[in-house]
Amino acid sequence: MLFVPIIGGFFPFHIDFVRGAGLLVALSGALAAGPGLLKKGMADLRLALPVALIASACAIVGAMLGLALPAKVVNTALGATILGIVAIMFMAKKSEYPEVKQADALSTALRINGIYHEVSTGHEVNWKIHRTPQGLATFILIGVMAGMFGLGAGWANVPVLNLMMGAPLKVSVATSKFLLSITDTSAAWIYVNNGAVLPMMVVPSIIGIMMGSIVGVKILAKTKPAAVRYIVIVMLLFAGLRALLKGLGIWN
Amino acid sequence: MGKEVKATEEQVAYAKLLDVGMKAGLLALIATFVIYVMGILTPHVPVNDLPKYWAMPVKEYLEATNIHPGWSWLGMVGRGDFLNFIGIAFLAGVTILCYMRIIPILFRKKDSVYGIIAALEVLVLALAASGILRAGGH
Predict the structure, then answer these.
(1) Contact of A54 with A46, CB cutoff 8 Å
(2) What are phi and psi of A115, to 5 degrees?
(3) For each of chain A's 252 residues, which pLDDT tens digit applies?
(4) Domains held by chain B: number
(5) Which of B34, B18, B84, B24 lies closest to A33 in space, CA to CA?
(6) Percent of chain B, pLDDT > 70?
(7) Which residue of B has its CA nearest to A187?
(8) How far apart are CA B103 and CA B98, in angstroms?
(9) Which residue of chain B comes nearest to A44, CA vs CA?
(10) How far apart are CA B124 and CA B134, in angstroms?
(11) What pTM did the predictor assign?
(12) What ipTM goes with this model?
């Protein structure tokens, strides 16, 4: 989520290449995390597959729209979106175990439910979801935005899976990460096939993100979660404003 | 030791193939990038010239460098920069392979709805990868 607004805002690369690189960076991170999340049963394939089909198809549309639109329009929309994400991060609540009184008909028919072992409490958590049609419809918009802006869409996936559809927070976070590997695959191919990928930019970014993940985990263990949240919010706020002002021609 | 919740057969199969494919893709990406930056294979666009192009919209960049979009990079893998697309394409393609791996499992388990969803996803990703879909450019 940070890659596109920061690199696009403060480095000389055109936004087309930044979005192509952003998608491949998010894709690599999701691919690396996917096997572990699936094997542990944290990411749920039954929840992910229908969502991914909608999001990945719409990400293609978003990617094609993004490449067809002028850079100013994309930057303006990106800036507005990033500022919207900041607002969501400020206001959105999280629910460890949302109360789902009754699974809806669609999720029941698709047998989207599960059980996972919560290590912190030692309990097994049975979960089911509701509002599946509304959730799936929201992923149309999420897919388009992911493809258009080259953003990993975890910021949107998690609230929809957790708060709207009622999946437990850990299942939502893990399934969201896994979902990125599918959504970003379809959008990444559009950028690759349209020439918007510069290896000199993409490969060091992927290696840097992986190295940063290793170092970041060590720093994260010693840092207060609230501090990390505020750092991310401040960086996003600054990058979002930069993209918006760049798009509007005020700060080039 | 935490008790593990058993993942489904298709979930484990997907995870195993993804694990192998992801690692192979990343290794390919690193190896080809080393070849590129070491100058072992001459790049199509010289590294020193890149700053002239990376601020251009992609359409102008393709015209200025005489690069054809789509799968034409396959014919240029002998160039250091285009060699990197092997790893990039592998990473972007591994999800398609994972889906193809679970389709027979889902149909064997008579989970036809999910089998069809997985098959449709393969079609969507294959369409994206095909190069048929071209953006208009700006």
Answers:
(1) no
(2) -145, 135
(3) 778 888 888 889 999 999 999 999 999 989 988 998 898 888 999 999 999 999 999 999 999 999 999 989 998 998 998 898 888 877 877 778 888 999 999 999 999 999 887 777 888 889 999 999 999 999 999 999 999 998 878 888 988 999 899 999 889 989 999 999 999 999 999 999 999 999 999 999 988 877 776 676 667 667 776 777 788 788 888 888 988 998 888 877
(4) 1
(5) B18
(6) 94
(7) B128
(8) 9
(9) B11
(10) 15
(11) 0.91
(12) 0.93
Distance from CA of B80 to the nearest CA of A (A): 10
Task: Using an 8 Å CB-CB cutoff, list chain B residues near A35.
Answer: 15-16, 18-19, 22
Give long-range contacts, CB 8 A cutoff, 24+ apart: B74-80: B76/B44, B78/B41, B79/B41, B79/B42, B79/B43, B79/B44, B80/B35, B80/B36, B80/B39, B80/B40, B80/B41, B80/B42, B80/B43
B1 belongs to a structural domain: no
pLDDT per residue over B30-47, tens digit each?
A: 999 999 999 999 999 999
Contact B12, A36 (CB under 8 A): no
Mutate to test the interface with B, among A46, A49, A65, A246 (most CBs of B within 10 A): A49
Contact A156, A84 (CB under 8 A): no
* B115 at A interface, C-beta within 8 A: no
Domain that holds residue B50: 9-130
Q: And the tokens for A12?
A: 């000389």
Show residues of chain B in contact with A117, CB under 8 Å: 2-5
Domain residue ranges in chain A: 17-247
User: Chain B contact for A203, CB < 8 A?
Assistant: yes
One-character DSSP codes across A218-248: HHHHHS-HHHHHHHHHHHHHHHHHHHHHHHT
